[in-house]
């Protein structure tokens, strides 16, 4: 992946760097699938 250096006064570039970091750390497509069989089911909880 290509990394760009962004001047701190470039607000668009700074935001794109932040979004890229979030994409790599939080995006569901970049995470392992959870094991749904191990999730606790609470029938009294209103989801």
Automatic annotation (TrEMBL):
The domain of life is: Bacteria
Q: What is this protein called?
A: Uncharacterized protein
